[in-house]
Amino acid sequence: MRGLALLACWALAIPAQDGAEVFRATCAQGYCHGAAGTQGRAPRLIGRNYDPAFVVKVVSEGVPNTGMPGFRNSLDTARLNAVIAYVVRISGGDLSKLPAAAGGSAPSVPADVKRGRELFQDAVRGFQRCNTCHVMEGMGTPVGPNAAGSHDVESIRNGKPAAVRRAIVKPGDSFAALTVETKQDWVKLYDLSALPPVLRTLRKADLSFADGADWRHSKVVANYTDAELASIAAYLRWAASH
Fold this sequence. Notes:
Blueprint: H1 2-13, H2 16-26, H3 52-61, H4 77-91, H5 111-120, H6 153-158, E1 165-169, E2 173-182, E3 186-191, E4 198-203, E5 207-210, H7 217-220, H8 226-240
Antiparallel strand pairs: 1-2, 1-5, 2-3, 3-4
Helix pairs in contact: 2-4, 3-4, 5-8
């Protein structure tokens, strides 16, 4: 009984805003659970009265063969516990029944790397955040390549992947595109003319490609300052070796 009481106190002692901030950065994207768990392509969370043990398992381990990743290895213990408690709260679950979360095993990271991680996933920026097009630590959409590696502000601000080409669709519509898959009669590609990029499947007979696509990375990172991009670059360099 004393152990359960301590767990209940632990859950109630986590500031609500801490869990809300972690949720906003990792779960609030439109293709996930949406702002405050109220909407999105993933299940609505608010008012669902989830069993706290179920929340611990899903948030820690993820759900196999779905878009739901586990956060045990990407969030430290404090952030993992905070977001679990937040989800239980907004679902209307009983915090007094919240079991201990499996401790996050993420390595400690420098402050600028932590800041870069937050900026990379920053849902407040809408679809102009980095993980709209790149996956890092299991979160994001794989439109572009894995972003981990040696980067600086200049390479992020002005980079242009060689794979971006101009797709021309009969009778003459054209747009910047990244090819995902080519079949005998069909081509699957991302249309980069808007955010978020749209995954399209087009007939080969109606499609051709040319160089000179009017697309620059500078357009999609325009709302980041150079200081913010420096933190993101630090995160990407760190991620390449962890």
